[in-house]
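are you around this afternoon, could really use another pair of eyes. what follows is a protein written twice so to speak, once as letters and once as structure tokens for the fold. i want to understand how the tokens follow from the sequence so walk me through it. anything you notice is useful, everything is just below.
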Amino acid sequence: MSAWTPPRLLDLAGTSLLRDNEASAIAALEYLPTELFPSLFLEAFFGRRIETLKALVQAWPFVRLPLGGLIELPHVGPLQAVLDGLDVLLAQKVRPRRCKLRVLDLRNTGQKFWSMWSGEGTHVCSRSRMAPVAEDRSRTKQPLAPLKVFIDLYLKKRTLNRFLTYFLRWVERRKGLIHLCCKKLKIVSMPVGNVMKVLSRVQLDCLQEVQMDCTWRLSALAGFAPLLGQMTSVQRLLLSHINVSAFEEQDQQHLAQFTSQFLRLHHLRNLHIESPSFLEGRLDQMLRFLKTPLDNFSITNCQLSESDLTHLSWCPNISQLKGLDLSGVTLTDFSPELLQVLLEKVAVTLQELDLNLCGITDSHLEAILPALSRCSQLRTLSLGGNLLSMAVTEKLLRRTDGLPSLCAEFYPAPRESYSPQGVPLRGRIAQLQAELMEILRDLGRPRTIWLSLSFCPYCGDDICDHMEPIVYRCSTPA
């Protein structure tokens, strides 16, 4: 039975203030100790004490008000009260003596702040970020700088939720007084016109991460392109499911309008593209506009041409890759030397390689093994869903044994694990697992190997991880 923790005096004081008289609590804010503000704010927020919230905002003695962790609520009344309190501040030419508020943070952060000041935290938060600003009673007036507002935008379906609609209208009516900074943007299935209307209120050069999962046509993507070009600080871009049933003549112009914007993305380090049917045979039209070396590149679940792989291996800005993901890209129709050249180019820096469901056969894997064995920084290797024999799986284990950082290995169950009809044979699988364990024991280095079935008859997935890993640990000498 856990010990009961009595409420702190600060918490009792805040509760008592609000219970006795809300007007008295507001009048007392000028004289309350700084330490009481966070717990009093939480009491007022969850108790929906609207007038108290407005007053607390106007006297907030911290630089930052982290509201993001509190906005997962069905009622937007308390949040509107905070904005109403900010309106009073923004209408003033000088800041009240007590108020130090410079930043309203609507991202899902700040939990440490609230837990520290409410006594719920089990550790002390860094005082460099969250400690209260010391009051200077000799100063009675401070110039009012524009308020910074941080928010992560998640645009889904056709319309915005109630709070986001209210908030963006509030921002729009206060241009020049609010600096709206969005670092993360996620768009899922929202029409491009609605997206552009929302983003017209955002300072786009603040964005650092953009995810777009939209069944837009290339014409819509071309319309979005000028906005992408304004996202000059973006470091991570994820693009998936652009809808192109048949590439037509006008689509070439649309593609050029979109890919040319990459010239302006000077900070792009991570580029992830899923199911881009419009790039088959045209990957070079995107690669040639890259301005900086990428850390991670993935292009998945699509068809690529031989020229695409050739241009990828020639691209100067992929030579420092730490992560390469080609899962779901069929490689059986190409010469394995293309993949070998690509791996040789990134061998010095590559840490993660994902070649799941690429149709790789014994001959393909044997061709790339020399290049693979030179990837000295490789930590994760995924080859699930490919058809490999036991003999080639053994060669793989032996050729990669010299990679000192390799710690996560995901391989397909050898093809001998299946009947001629493709049904997994439990007894045969157990036998092959034992043989693989003997190979690991012979090599003598601790390793963990995950085998997967494909197609799995139990869950229906293309790749599954139902089987226990093969774990070899060096025995300790007696």
Summary: The first helix runs from residue 9 to 20.
